[in-house]
TrEMBL record, chain A:
Top-level taxon: Bacteria
UniProt protein name: VWFA domain-containing protein
InterPro entries according to UniProt: UCP010256, Uncharacterised_CoxE, vWFA_dom_sf
Organism: Thermopolyspora flexuosa
Biased composition (Basic and acidic residues): 45-57
SUPFAM superfamilies reported in the protein's UniProt record: vWA-like
PANTHER family reported for this sequence: BLL5662 PROTEIN, BLL5662 PROTEIN-RELATED
Biased composition (Low complexity): 25-36
Region ranges (Disordered): 25-57
Amino acid sequence: MSGRPEHGYPDPAAAARAALDRILAGVSSHAASHPPADTPPPTPPDERGRAEADDRPVDERLYATITGFARTLRAAGVAADRERTQNMVEALARLDVTRPMDVYWAGRFTLCSGPDDIPRYDRCFAAYFGGERALPVRQPAVVTVTRHVVSLGDDGEGGQEGDGDVVPMTASRVEILRHRDVARMTAAERDEIHRMLALLEAARQRRRSRRFTPAQRGRIDPRRTVRDTLRRGGEPARLRRRTHRTRPRRVVLLVDVSGSMAPYADTLLRFAHALVRREPRATEVFSVGTRLTRITEELRHRDPATAMREVSAAIPDWSGGTRLGEELKEFLARHGSYARGAIAVIASDGWERGDPSLLGSQMARLSRLAHRVVWVNPHKGSEGYQPLTGGMQAALPYIDDFVAGHSLAAFEDLAALLAGKQSGKTR
Amino acid sequence: MLEKHGYLADEGLATACFLALRMGRPLFLEGEAGVGKTELAKTLATVLDAPLIRLQCYEGLDAAQALYDWDFPRQLLHLKAAEAAGVHDAERLEGELYDRRYLIARPLLRALETWPSVLLVDEVDRADDEFEAFLLEVLSDFQISIPELGTVRAERPPVVVITSNRTREVHDALKRRCLYHWLEHPSFEREVAILRKRLPECGETLAAQVARATARLREADLVKPPGIAETLDWTEALLTLGARDLDPALAAASLGALLKYREDQETVLRNGLLDDVRPA
């Protein structure tokens, strides 16, 4: 910032200069003549009173004041980083530091970066420059984890684990298994499903990149054609062509590991493992429950069993409650860039313990960031399922694909969806 | 000054424009559709008496469409002409081929080469993130390098206005470079003033009634709350219908100019949101 040249606007081109002078004069006089009633300012700051109580040079004092203000904002959740703080100082240098409204706007233009920041900014501004130095420190959220037992409502025959002796697999048996709900499988059957999941062809949808690559067909590549022609002394050579390069589209998978998802979590994580194995650079996996945990690294292990061991050690909140809204918010705040242009997959039954409206607003943000939002709900596979839970209701408007995730067949469909191939199967 | 050209800015927006000009930084405008983001860029251009260079963003927009491209047919013509003239000095030929006159300047390059100018990067949220990174590069140094030609640098940066409708989050790095301003719907007084300014034949009474009605509709839960553009359309429609005073029947008859979604019109009529518009 400091190295940047001063862009001196009022200069040459006589007409332009006149116009600029007019606007500069116009803007400032307009601003001065405008009563602040139009835009509700927070409590007017008392910048002058503070300045007199200190005998450090003005610049230093100003800088300290602004740095402190930025810190207050950061505590309130506004991303007022150092560069932004610097920008505010730079902006203030061109305004009148003694005018509260100038200070207000200089900070708002430079420190805020979204509509959500503005109410926070107003609050902090009033608190900081209004004299109360006591700053609004971010309240640590009170987390209550309820371990609850959920009847899945659809448990029927064969829910017991370990009642199966190993039966040799036949083609028809595999076919039956493919469509069975994993929650109702025996341990041996589930092992078999996990082996098949590891072999799942988890190809990835491609997205067009801005870069070009030489190709046999496609648009003419003028640069290469002309160079080629030139090399032959102007003799028209064959036309070179180019096409846009493609890249695998990133998938961000959020796996709910809360109590109600326990029968499916293991299988879902193995599915995640297959995704990571296939596209290590374009897959991100997080577990959600009561804590958001990034488990991509753990899933990079080649061997599924090792990966699963690592993952279970990494996840601190197995079978706890669900605070999807809060965690989605945290995900977007901390790792939001992963979701940009990606396919966001949320695997959860939508049993939200928290406030469904928070989940709704976070889903709205996610849907703005992501290329597509896919929701995998294991219960969707069961007959007569209706997305009635509060969480599901809040999230539904922002979902592009709502799919089942209870059986191997469902996972194959999901994999096809992520690969950009719509399978003909019903889901 | 903006006012003279029919754009009524509040103190915040006026300060934002002032700072953007003084600091040579892009102005990043966000806000609901129809609050006057694009309009501001146009007005700035008029006020500064500078050309408005508009880059409309869309998914897949790339450098060749935003920055520059070589004029391939003309290059070949030149080559043919040189051949006819018997020029065989390859190096010289190449130098001639990649001459500035064969370069087609797209909006970004044109804005860097023109001063003064107002560059409007409209709806940046529609472009993909790779384009944002590229834009950031251009807007940081106000220079671009063309491999065959060298670096083009703006002697003075253009005035840049970037708008976003928030259909997608825009990269933080880009926002950080800019002065960020969230535009609100205008206050009641300002909206009345805008209506009177833009439609001089509109009387004080009608303007106040319209402003009050639209303010209420913005509070209601509509798919697309009316922006200033819609308010202006509506007022014009009412004026065309010969209205000097708003009444529910007239309002219902001209509602299509204000609300562009069928659901919204139904909501408004069903809930009688415009039934008591008359008392001004």
